[in-house]
Design brief:
mainly beta, Porin, eight-stranded antiparallel barrel, 8 strands
């Protein structure tokens, strides 16, 4: 796990970012977990509050087990994907702290875990909706482009 954590940090801080100067604030967050892989999930409303600027993201959310989780990540964004105006492909990779076991709830204290997703943002003016997926969960949240 230590090697994976080190590799993620190296990727996060050394890889160029496809991004712009837009400050994005994200909030809300509702998820759907694949039933066969979701044993013990108690929360599908995540209270996300996050900021993304120049490809760096930081924020907090209530994880799938109801525990407050903080994250830092690097986010890649490809605008107008598939030739659709205001549809961005996004990907993010970083670390989080809040799960008692990486993506489980069997430990006693919070641990550092890999954090990442792929998905899409669709904008209408300064407001957007995001659909993101990880291995066993799909998340929908909202955001506002500040500048």
């Amino acid at each position: 796990m230590k090697t994976l954590f080190t590799l993620i940090l190296l990727l996060v801080f050394t890889t160029p970012v496809l991004s712009d100067d837009t400050l994005r604030i994200e909030f809300g967050g509702f998820s759907y977990h694949i039933p066969t892989a979701s044993q013990g999930v108690t929360n599908e409303s995540h209270n996300i509050l996050a900021a993304d600027w120049r490809g760096y993201s930081v924020g907090k959310f209530d994880n799938s087990y109801g525990k407050e989780t903080w994250f830092v990540a690097k986010t890649w964004r490809s605008p107008d994907v598939f030739g659709v105006r205001d549809l961005d492909a996004i990907g993010s990779l970083g670390v989080n702290r809040g799960y008692t076991e990486c993506y489980g709830n069997n430990g006693d204290s919070a641990k550092f875990c890999p954090h990442g997703y792929v998905g899409f943002d669709y904008s209408v003016g300064r407001v957007y909706i995001s659909v993101k997926t990880q291995v066993v969960v799909t998340l929908v949240n909202f955001g506002i482009k500040i500048f």
